[in-house]
Amino acid sequence: MKKYLLYLLTLSAGLTACKSELENINKNPNETTTAQPDYLLANAIKSNADLILGSDASMETTTLFIQYWAKIQYTDVDKYTTSTTNIQNVWTNLYSLGLTDFNEIIKIGEQTKNPNYQAVGLILRSWSFQLLTDLYGNVPYSQALRINDYLTPQYDAQKDVYAGVLADLKKAVDLIDVSGNNPIKGDIVYNGNLSRWKKFANSLRLRVALRIADRDDATAKSVIASLSKADLIASNDETAQLIYQSSPNQNPVARDRETRDDYRVSKTVVDKLVQLNDPRLPVFANKTADYTPQGYIGVTNGLPADSAARLGFSKTSKLGDYFTTATSPAVFLNYAEVLFNLAEAAQRGYIQDDAAALYKAAVTASLQQFRVTADDIAKYLAQPAVAYDKANYKKSIGEQKWLALFGESLEAFAEWRRLDYPELKPAYAGVLNGKMPVRLTYPVGEQALNNNSYKAAVSAQGADLLTTKLWFDVK
């Protein structure tokens, strides 16, 4: 028996030595084992930008749910028959490409004593978690990104995810050093301008505070009251966005349009723009290729394939050139949204400002973003249909914010659920019994690899269906 035990110990030691030797052999002495933060930051930003404009999180899901786009071909997804691949890819890419890299940037900032890398990593990680919980609800948060400790992380309640995001954004703001002593590289959003990163972080705090306002009025009010307008995005020049380049680094919509022609602008948004004499119509949509009396014709969401095909590819409006050019930006948070959020905060009594004036400034900022002339802006604002209605501020803000977020379908989808405007009709041949999607279902990979945590999340949140409302979505 002693000889047997001695044999096992000797064998174990030998195997350990072999493993150590193999690990050393497999190390490339010419390659660093430490990630360079500039490359990591640039790649992670672009990965998330590609995600929010790409097929999975946008083209095949939220742009259709929110009725910015419609399908004229392959219409099943426009009837809410979502692809399991799309849903899995959103989850996987946010966790493995965005969050993992942002987490590493935070660690590098801590190790190198550069608070600005740490702060920017925190801001972008918070933004990514906000996207995740907005889409799915309860998600792995406190135990996420710690694979050595938690192979099957638990799902945190949505309210706790938002609370964590608000805390991390505040921490990031406090960390930022604008003295110039701790520069960062790889910043393809603000080119190293730390003052603008601080404004982006505070503007995200404003967004998240309003997201929870119908559930936790006291916290929302406290967060927003602590913000100064000077610390928020204050012009279209300060909008948080990635401006794409030419191929192969072009905008994902531009890349998609090179080989596909199955999307059109939704009838819902075209009709609203026409109704309001909105000068953004030729920006959001192109005129029909063949002459039509209307000039702009949108497609009803969720048509059967044969009905959509009969409308004609050349007699329906494609997405406007502004959004399909190679260099069109991926917008993370725009100036108009900040002003709409301030208008709502004023209407709720969180800040002492004129809600109507802020609303008017928000509409103006959106029109200016899309290069509408001053004369056309004045005419637009003079219309009774555009005037601010404080008695139904959610309608005024909700409808105009929906237009202002065209091209930002993930945020538009969240705000439509929160504000309940505009009043959208379900897809014509939708498969959800007359209802509309209000979330993404969890990916099948979670059911296979993290089943206990998945089941606990479903038990807490409700059935894993597209129609199950999330915590923040009160009405």
Automatic annotation (TrEMBL):
<dbReference type="InterPro" id="IPR011990">
    <property type="entry name" value="TPR-like_helical_dom_sf"/>
</dbReference>
<dbReference type="Pfam" id="PF12771">
    <property type="entry name" value="SusD-like_2"/>
</dbReference>
<dbReference type="InterPro" id="IPR041662">
    <property type="entry name" value="SusD-like_2"/>
</dbReference>
<protein>
    <submittedName>
        <fullName>Starch-binding associating with outer membrane</fullName>
    </submittedName>
</protein>
